[in-house]
Write a structure and sequence with these properties.
9-stranded antiparallel sheet, globular, 17% strand, 6-stranded antiparallel sheet, 27% helix
């Protein structure tokens, strides 16, 4: 028996069943030290040193960092700076010195049943490529896997497969029910967590909970299909498969070497949480994406091969040569005795397996395979019950009569098969170590040194701690720190290489049978210019493994906190020629690129610009200029396409809010007429003000932008007047004076519009459009001032209706809602019997629980009722609901709107919060109150987190309770998580709230002057100031708590 050092106690926590989270339980520190064959204690290297010598990373840097490189963003002297190790890597990547982001978590979690893989006649992606085909059928547009990792072009993909000796197939991808099978639409039926990631992916951590019993594929589908929309979703925990803790906690960690972004240590640690010993197969896979099955003259295949015992070598024409060294593993440890159950010389060596990433035509449709070794070969090789002979007869013998894997040890798909027997229960664990590198063992003898390997992982983890400490050092509790870190880690894990070339997709591939002719007219035929092959931020890599335009804009806010360069590049991509149409239309999402999402890119652009300036002390003015010019084209598209009568009232359509109205807003109204949308029009007013804001910022450097600023000022006034005041010729306002609220209205072919009195976000979105103009700003922009004065003099009535001119010091407020209307709207919004929940602002007023709205059109009833949880309607698939739940994206904009109103009114505007409580607050404190309610969704208090929905295991089990899921939306009454369970996309905004609300001051200050919003101290300077030394040494994340105009 060989003794090993004691496992870190916090991963087990048996000694403290009532454990409360503490700082040492941050996501990067909650893993036990995996077993090694020698009980050698070692000292961790410092964050800026490496156990390896530096070598070149071996390929061109030109393909690494997309987007505009701007001197305006500031260039640090890396040799003399004292940045943290991770900030140093970010700066190296930004300056194109080293490609730290070439490798990352860019592998999708679901490629099957996506629009990209759908070649059906009817556009039914769920049925055309089901989960049952995924293991046997080659993908055309990407790959998928569990806890995966790839290069930034999706050429070489790493992922983990597992087998518990009970399942009929390897667990090599996440399972879920389809849109047809789920009672609330598609839904992943797995338990996994993104625990940590740095922005360069120098350190990453992923947790997958794998049942020891047979995975209940059939019962999950059957029960989900049997339930109606009035019942909650049937989840994996509901099956009882985790009872008695009979499952594995499988933790995957990635760590890049300190000075080489293509030396990557991968450590897999599997803990047996059950009471009894159990067997486990860990099967890391290395696969080349299939690029050879589609053209008539296929390119030379890349190759993976066994180059020496335990080493897989991958060769690719553009990626070059990579090796993955599959180290032999020590025998599992017993968590109680902390001993290795083997002699000194015993070890577990992997069996290297090779096949082709080609479709198994024989299994799928009794066809003929071009090569004998196919995509699902590892299932056949490892699981006897999976094997088929001719036809469908099972071959269950342990020794198959044929080899399912290539005995020559070569192919395009490979695996290292580790088999662990009798891993002790109650916390026993097994570990696998892999090293991906361009170096051979001869070039780097330390590759097989476990101590050096683990030192690298621990060093990167320590550096991740250091990086996040700079961001959240002022956060008050360990639990809040943990929530924020997992939110940001989840956002970084949600990057995915997304490939879609529309012209090739719609025509089909020359080497494949032509797709049905009817397919060409099902969807997206007007987007032939799309040619996307980029790493993008996904809403949810399983439920929504495709970009969504307005989601992406929100993603960029928290992403800018940790990686402004990536956030800027994401925004710029959507305005590139190969995304945006020539007329300015931005693609929405792959199910329908022409659906209309809210125009939030201008807001996100200016916020990202401001966030970077707050953190780094200097803004990227080139980025702002480029985005402004592209957004001008998009703005023109909106005006030309969505205001078809030229009356400045917009018909938007879908606008991202799914089922918020009585009608499907993506389709024509059932009895003709046009829906005049309060939110669509308010979004355009919001768009105008953000363009005005950017133009004033750019006017500091170029007076020509003063003229453009005047254009957006006047356009805003026109929209505000059309939306809120009655005009002639049968026009009427979208404001209802009696109700004190904004409503949509149907404009029939004859007569006055008919308002639809539904109290929803539609009536709150007009609050988004608000901006304060400071006299000192106007005075320093003479052309803009002259045009402003001319407008006031020539259109006094319109000006008086839509501008507030009585502010302190002659400030001007531009807002759709006057002070009186703002008061009336907030009385409803802050009423706990209407919009204000304990967990944020509801998307529909609780008033409609008692007073449902309905109207009859052509004998058909259309209605809206308050549903605080999942949708009870099939509109938009039923997997999202805007009739009561809380959405963080729209709440975020409401909070910022209140902060901007506070900039103008200060303590001169006080309102009851909650309504009827007698407690008066200024608007900044109202905003902070809503932030605190949103954050409370995730906080562990009173025995659990509201987001867990009262699930006892998730709330109290020591192996669950510190892990957070970030759902798509949240129950309007109890805060439980709903919809997609890993939508750290816009739900990751909670990290921004945590940082901003960490300000200890009870009342944010109202600045005396707002001039700094547009000008730095040296107003006459034509250029941005130099990056100051304080920001050079440590980015100023505390500046994110600023809500002055300079920040917003």
């Amino acid at each position: 028996m060989v003794k090993i050092s004691a496992l870190t106690p916090e991963i087990f926590m048996e000694s403290n069943p009532d454990h409360e989270p503490t700082h040492h339980l941050s996501p990067s520190l909650s893993i036990a030290m995996p077993p090694k064959r020698k009980a050698l204690l070692y000292r961790l290297p410092s964050p800026n040193t490496s156990p390896r010598s530096h070598t070149s990373f071996g390929s061109s840097l030109s393909e690494e960092v997309d987007g505009t490189q701007s001197e305006d963003a500031g260039t640090l002297d890396l040799a003399s700076s004292q940045l943290s190790a991770e900030h140093h890597r970010l700066e190296q990547d930004r300056q194109k010195i080293r490609p730290w982001k070439r490798w990352g978590p860019y592998l999708s979690e679901r490629q099957w049943a996506t629009v990209r893989e759908d070649y059906s006649a009817d556009g039914d992606a769920w049925t055309h490529f089901p989960h049952d085909h995924a293991r046997s059928r080659a993908y055309r547009w990407g790959e998928d896997g569990i806890g995966g990792f790839s290069d930034d072009q999706g050429r070489l993909c790493w992922s983990l497969a597992l087998w518990n000796e009970k399942d009929p197939i390897l667990k090599e991808r996440l399972f879920g029910v389809t849109g047809h099978e789920g009672n609330h639409g598609e839904d992943v039926k797995e338990l996994y967590y993104y625990l940590d990631s740095t922005p360069t992916h120098s350190y990453m951590k992923f947790l997958y909970k794998y049942p020891q019993s047979r995975f209940p594929y059939e019962s999950l589908v059957d029960e989900s299909s049997a339930r109606d929309r009035n019942v909650a979703e049937f989840e994996l925990l509901d099956t009882g498969i985790f009872d008695e803790d009979r499952y594995w906690d499988v933790i995957i960690e990635y760590a890049k070497d300190a000075d080489d972004p293509e030396d990557i240590s991968i450590r897999i640690t599997a803990f047996n949480r059950g009471p009894d010993p159990a067997n486990l197969h860990l099967i890391p896979q290395l696969t080349f994406g299939n690029t050879w099955s589609w053209p008539l003259n296929p390119p030379k295949r890349p190759e993976v091969r066994e180059s020496s015992p335990g080493v897989i070598t991958a060769e690719h024409s553009t990626l070059g040569r990579m090796h993955i060294h599959c180290l032999s593993s020590p025998f599992p440890v017993d968590a109680d005795k902390q001993t290795v159950c083997a002699s000194d010389n015993d070890e577990i060596a992997p069996e290297l397996l090779f096949t082709e990433n080609d479709t198994n035509h024989g299994r799928l449709h009794d066809g003929q395979n071009q090569l004998p070794y196919v995509k699902d070969a590892f299932h056949d090789h490892i699981i006897p019950s999976h094997r088929l002979s001719l036809g469908t007869e099972l071959l269950t013998s342990l020794q198959p009569p044929v080899s399912f894997v290539n005995p020559d040890k070569t192919g395009t798909k490979s695996a290292a098969h580790y088999t662990f027997k009798n891993i002790p229960g109650n916390g026993g664990c097994a570990v696998v170590r892999l090293k991906m590198t361009r170096k051979t063992l001869e070039e780097d003898p330390t590759i097989n040194d476990e101590e050096v390997f683990d030192a690298t992982v621990e060093a990167r983890r320590n550096e991740a701690d250091e990086f996040y400490e700079t961001i959240s050092h002022a956060v008050g509790t360990a639990d809040l720190h943990n929530i924020g870190r997992q939110a940001l880690g989840g956002m970084l894990w949600s990057k995915q290489f997304y490939q879609f070339i529309q012209e090739q997709w719609i025509k089909g591939d020359p080497a494949q049978p032509p797709p049905p002719e009817a397919r060409k007219n099902i969807r997206n035929q007007g987007w032939r210019h799309l040619h996307i092959a980029d790493v993008l931020s996904m809403p949810d890599k399983w439920e929504y493994p495709f970009f969504a335009a307005w989601d992406s804009a929100f993603h960029c806010i928290p992403l800018a906190m940790v990686d402004p360069e990536f956030a800027k590049n994401q925004l710029m991509l959507f305005t590139r020629d190969w995304y945006m149409k020539a007329d300015g239309e931005i693609p929405a999402y792959e199910w329908n690129f022409s659906d209309v999402n809210p125009p939030v890119h201008a807001w996100a652009t200016f916020r990202v610009y401001k966030i970077e300036r707050q953190i780094r002390g200097v803004g990227d003015i080139t980025f702002l200029k480029v985005m402004f010019l592209k957004l001008m084209i998009n703005f023109t598209w909106w005006v030309n396409r969505k205001d078809r009568d030229g009356k400045n009232v917009f018909e938007g359509g879908f606008l991202g809010l799914d089922n918020i109205g009585a009608f499907n807003r993506s389709e024509p109204l059932p009895n003709g007429g046009v829906l005049r949308q309060a939110d669509g029009t308010a979004w355009m007013a919001f768009y105008c003000l953000n363009m005005l804001n950017m133009a004033l910022e750019l006017a500091k450097f170029d007076p020509a932008y003063e003229d453009i600023a005047s254009k957006f000022f006047e356009h805003f006034i026109a929209i505000a007047d059309a939306m809120t005041y009655d005009g002639g010729n049968g026009e009427s306002s979208l404001w209802n004076e009696k109700e004190g609220f904004y409503f949509d209205a149907i404009q029939w072919s004859t007569g006055h519009p008919q308002q639809i009195p539904v109290r929803s976000l539609v009536g709150l979105i007009p609050l988004y459009a608000t901006l304060t103009l400071e006299p000192s700003v106007i005075d320093r922009l003479p052309d803009f001032k002259r045009r402003l004065e001319r407008f006031l003099n020539t259109r006094p009535e319109v000006s008086q209706r839509n501008m507030t001119l009585d502010g302190h010091g002659d400030r001007i407020l531009l807002a759709l809602a006057s002070k009186e209307r703002l008061t009336r709207i907030l009385e409803k919004m802050l009423d706990e019997t209407e919009f204000l929940s304990d967990y944020g602002i509801r998307s529909l007023s609780k008033y409609h629980e008692r007073n449902p709205f309905s109207m009859e059109v052509n004998g058909e009833n259309f209605g809206v009722q308050y549903w605080p949880g999942d949708s009870r309607s099939g509109m938009f698939g039923g997997n999202s609901n805007w009739r009561g739940p809380i959405w963080l994206a729209t709440n975020f904009l409401l909070i910022e709107s209140l902060q901007r109103f506070h900039q103008y009114y200060g303590d001169g505007f006080m309102i009851e919060c909650p309504t009827g409580s007698g407690d008066l607050m200024n608007l900044a404190n109202v905003a902070k109150e809503i932030q605190h309610r949103i954050i409370s969704i995730f906080i562990a208090a009173n025995g659990g987190r509201p987001s867990n929905g009262g699930n006892a295991k998730m709330d109290r089990d020591p192996h669950f309770r510190d892990h957070i899921l970030f759902h798509e939306f949240f129950h309007g009454d109890d805060g439980r998580g709903l919809g997609a369970s890993h939508q750290t996309g816009w739900t990751g905004l909670v990290a921004y709230h945590i940082i901003q609300s960490a300000d200890p001051r009870p009342t944010p200050r109202t600045p005396r002057s707002f001039a700094s919003h547009y000008f730095h101290e040296l107003i006459e300077d034509e250029h941005e100031p130099e990056l100051d030394e304080t920001r050079r040494l440590r980015p100023a994340y505390s500046a994110l708590r600023d809500i002055s105009p300079d920040a917003l």
